[in-house]
Design brief:
The protein is built from six helices and 24 strands. By secondary structure, the chain is mainly beta. It has two domains: 219 residues, Thrombin, subunit H (Beta Barrel); 94 residues, Pdz3 Domain. Strands 3, 4, 5, 6, 7, 8, 9 and 10 form an eight-stranded antiparallel β-sheet that branches. Strands 1, 18, 19, 20, 21, 22 and 23 form a seven-stranded mixed β-sheet that branches.
Amino acid sequence: MQVKTIVPFAVVAVLTSLATVAASSILSNGAPTTPVVVAQSAQPQVITTSTVPDMVAKVNPAVVQINATQTQTVQNFFGQTQSQSVGMLGSGFLISSSGLIVTNDHVINNGHNIEVTVLGYANPFPAKVVGADYNLDLALLQIQAPKPLPYLTFASTSSTVIGEPVVAIGMPYGLSHTVTAGVVSQLGRPLQIQSRMYRTLLQTDAAINPGNSGGPLLNYEGQVVGVNTAVSTQGQGIGFAIPSTEVTQALPYLQKGQSMPESWIGVSIVDIQSAPQVPQGYTAQDGVLVEQVISGSPAAKAGLQVGDVILAFNGKPTPTSNDLIADEVNAQVGQKVALTIWRNGSTFTVNVVLGAMPAHGG
């Protein structure tokens, strides 16, 4: 499924180039002298607002800094393309005592010389990419430490509610283990950033900046509710994170070096209320307008057309594109679904066999 970006501002991934950050601030800020001794979950048992500092102190050792060298193609003064190496900085967090780390794919995509800095250790660890998923913008790294490492656990995104207080921890602009706080502003935001289509982002007003990419967004119990990923460049307090449920679903595939298959209808859509032109004769306020049918997609094979209005997914109303995307995400590749369609004054059902979203490169 593709959807028009419904957020009227520029959004960028929160990754920063080392060229814009002083090296001394990247590697030295906030490093404690006491190394981690035993493996443990970094999640406190009971947490209240008054003990948030205790929670932060508990989880901080499981949040890591990731440095990588990326090869980028640029144009020189004469218009010629050439490759150059750029140092990049992002964040991540440990999910096992054996050194497995979750981060964004865009932190390490096309990267080499990947290194992970862990609190309590003077020298960074070389990291191996276990798996990466470009579409989901997730990656799994492995480091080998001399002792078991602390780690974070995941919250169920289904238990996350709008207005819930959250804390973001990461390395914005190389400022080690910066902590910001806010609330969950919205759930299930679809958003397109360059060639990546994020379908169910969690929105937050906790401050997120370049360098925060891949770091955790945590509830007050110290559980990960999302992976900090993107921020609005034109608005304040508008950041986005990949929800924890999507991460836990992807992990078994990442551990095998695979990408998680995502169900796909293959249409570009927009809310009927936001459509620049409503089909003649359609008078309802709800519904999802098909603006493009991708060639060779499940939608094309099922006969969907530009100008169709999707009213329901397996009998469940789809008043907005967010509703349709949520239903699509929760379905399985290969599943036959019934779409209720309005076309030229008639309402009927079209059966679509969901495909796997095509893989994109980065």
